[in-house]
Design goal:
- The chain is mostly helical and about 70 residues long.
- Helix content is about 85%, strand content about 0%.
- It starts with a helix and ends with a helix.
Length: about 70
Amino acid sequence: MLDAVLSLLVLAAIVLVIGAFVLWRRTGNVKNALLMVLLAVVALVNVMIWTLPDADGEAPLEKLEQGAR
């Protein structure tokens, strides 16, 4: 289930970046476009935190799945 949530979060980040570009090109509103890009970066950093392995070689997502079994 958490895999689906992380996948949707990555897709949302991609859509946010595309939407920020479209907003910037159509209206010239740089502030809102940059805020959208910042939100996409925060979302991707959260995905990285959950999926990148630590010094032991296990990702927090794997530890969570092992604890649920």
